[in-house]
Amino acid sequence: MAAKEKKRKGLYLSIIIVILIVFLGGFFVVNLFEGESPSIKTRPLAEYVSGAVSVTIEASDSRRGLRSIRAVVVQNGSEKVLLEKLYPFNGLMNREGTRFMREEIQFDPKRLGLAQGRAVMEIRCRDYSMRSGGDGNLTVLRQETTIDTVPPSVRSISGLHYVNEGGTGFVVYKTSSDTSDSGVSVGSEFYRGFLHPSSKNEGMYECFFPIPYDFKPETQIRLWARDSAGNNAMSPFHCKVRKKKFPSDKMVITDKFLEKILPYFQGRVDFDSTGKLEQFLKINREVRVFNDRTLSEVRSKTAPEHLWEGSWLRLPNAATMARFGDSRTYYYEGKAVDAQVHLGIDLASLANSAVPAANSGKVIIAEELGIYGKTIVLDHGMGVASLYSHLSEIKVSVGQDIKKGDTIGITGQTGLAGGDHLHFAVMVQGVFVNPIEWWDQRWIDENIYKRIALIN
Ligand SMILES: [Zn+2]
After folding, report:
1. Which residues does residue 102 pair with via DSSP β-bridges, in sequence order?
2. Residue 379: strand pairing partners
3. How many angstroms separate the alpha carbon of residue 371 from the centre of ligand 1?
4. Which helix H or strand E contains 252, and what residues bound it?
5. Which of 225, 255, 290, 304 makes a 20 to 30 Å CA pair with 332?
6. pLDDT at position 201, please?
């Protein structure tokens, strides 16, 4: 009886030991040979790298912990080390080992001696698993980029440029093939150039740029170019600005005038005063600024090619009532109350005259626009636009293609207008310029067509 009991106890013990061995063995195998690869996190490199960038690398392994991390950049078969770290095995089962790492490294093409062109950053991370013959689980992350540290080149090919204050400049220039964006800068303003339509002349651009009526002689006018990597180049070119004297004008505001123009703005403008003069001043200042901003923004909708051709049309049989650049001082009851500059040309013909499109283009604005009243803006491509305002009738709609001479509207006196006339303006890249140049066939031939002819 006792012997049987002893035997049975021994058997139980053996079973328990076997279970324990199997259990512990399983535990060790599952843990030592765990198959969970470490994870690597980093923000992707930009498509192009032009200078030193800092890259943050994070890696983690929640099971056996991190063994090593190595980051290299591979270019043309050779390898440059960015980061190399080993993490010691620490404590039983690496309990005190490294589970998480974060390093900021400098990816500096110059210091690394990288060449221009394609490069691959490769990050390899291993853990302390016993897998892969004891080397651990491996995670590899590859990121491709293009090294470009050389600024683009840009140079004018259209010789000497004489531009008028308040006028339009036009330059033809060539850039290196990696250029993504280019144009002309006038002081701190950047104006975009457009690739010449003929594909056989790759890298040839045309740029229309405005010279403001209040141009400061010390302002620099230069060509600029940027490549896809963000490298910038600035290059001077021959461009002389001719000083222009703009006339000044005295505008007398009478109560009769105020009574005539204010009703148009009731319900369109939030007046904070009931005073007639105050209301006029709000229109002439704030509404004007707001409207001009709207007009300036349409340059983003311009076509990348010339939509126009030849000389521009002027409203037929019309007298010039106000010129471009007129410095207007507004007087009310003998006192100067406001000053504005007139940035278009006022043309008066018979009331309700048909308004022809000055040249071919596309309608980008056809609406009532504050001080301008019923207004049409035509885009003529490459940042050039014409504006027709104070119309009594708009005969076109946005998006419509217009031929030179098409009747687009009827003159009137909507908006801030004392009588029936057409306020005609030309905008270059969102800035008002003197329309007179655009009516002058000789100016167009000398300053635009002759230069375009240099390309072919
Ligand atoms: Zn006007």
Report:
1. 58
2. 362, 385
3. 10
4. strand 248-253
5. 290
6. 62
Residues paired with residue 168 on neighbouring β-strands, in sequence order: 210
Does domain 40-147 match CATH 2.60.40? yes
Angle at 289 between CA 305 and CA 408, to 5 degrees: 45
Torsion of CA 22, 27, 33, 34, to 10 degrees: 140
| pLDDT of res. 200 | 64
Residues, CB-to-ion distance under 5 Å, ligand 1: 344, 346, 423
Instruction: Tell me phi and psi for residue 166, to 5 degrees.
Output: 75, 5
Q: Going by DSSP bridges, is the β-strand pair 161-164/239-242 parallel, antiparallel, or unpaired?
A: parallel
DSSP 97: S
The 10s digit of each residue's pLDDT in 376-428 is 999 999 999 999 999 999 999 999 999 999 999 999 999 999 999 999 999 99
Note the Cα 410 to chain centre separation in Å: 36
At position 327, the amino acid (one-letter code) is S
CA of 345 to the centre of ligand 1 (A): 6
Q: Residue 310 — pLDDT band, cuts 50, 70, 90?
A: very high
The two tokens of residue 243 are 């000083």
Q: Which helix (H) or strand (E) holds 277?
A: helix 276-282
- Buried b / exposed e over 109-124, threshold 16 CB at 10 Å, is beebebeeeebebebb
Same CATH topology for 40-147 and 154-242: the answer is: yes
The rounded Å distance from CA 342 to ligand 1 centre is 6
Q: How confident is the model at residue 49 (pLDDT cuts 50, 70, 90)?
A: very high
Average pLDDT, the chain: 92
Q: Does domain 154-242 have CATH number 2.60.40.650?
A: yes
The answer to whether residues 281 and 257 touch, using CB atoms and an 8 Å cutoff, is no
Give residue 423 CA to ligand 1 midpoint distance, Å.
4
Confidence check: pLDDT of 3 > 90: no
User: Residue 205 Cα, ligand 1 centroid: separation in angstroms?
Assistant: 34
Q: How does pLDDT run across 8-47, given as a tens digit for each residue?
A: 888 888 888 888 888 777 777 777 778 888 999 998 888 8
Q: Which fold has domain 248-434?
A: Glucose Permease (Domain IIA) (2.70.70)
CA 310 to chain centre: 31
